[in-house]
Amino acid sequence: MAAAKAMLVIGNKNYSSWSLRPWLALTMAGIPFDEKMIRFGEPRFGREVRKVSEAGMVPVLLHKGHTIWDSLAIIEYAAETWPKAHVWPKTAAARAMARSAAAEIHSGFRSIRSACPMNLRRPKVALKAGFSAAVMKDVKRLETLWAQCRKAHGKGEPFLFGRFSAADAMFAPVVARLDSYAIPVKKETRTYMNAVMATPGFTAWLAAALKEPWIVPEDEAE
Fold it and tell me: How far apart are the C-alpha atoms of 171 and 138, rounded to whole Å?
């Protein structure tokens, strides 16, 4: 049966933005799964991940003999396998826009990703060197995109498409970046960020992340 429990293989919750995306999407949709962490920095990290996926990266979803890697692929698999969970918005128009936005964050916004790696334990202060024009261009695009989604399909609710969906899960790591690096944003943007960070899924992930003792030096941007 499609309801068989899945296993989601993830990296450190403090740093793994790509793991956060499907974990949050599954959690908020009420889809049951077990999780297994393979810690960044372990000498055997690559070897351990390749035991479940030849791609050698997390996250990986294991379900009914299937191996699904890449955050967006996992989310799409979940949407097909558990259709009643409504992983994506309900209407075709909203789903089309949600998938477009999710694809954009999946492949874009490289400047803010590079300059501001996800680090949920980081003190909420700006980078010592400030933010480049490229980073602020990414921020402007995020604000514009989020406003467009909410105007078109938000239905007056705090999330991008009314109820929480996979689109919000895909943007959760950049929401965390804007918060952790104290990047200035519009009031409407902050309202959306607060809504995402207040969800039961995000707060549970954050609580676990804050308990992790491991440090990944390259993700400790000052």
Answer: 13
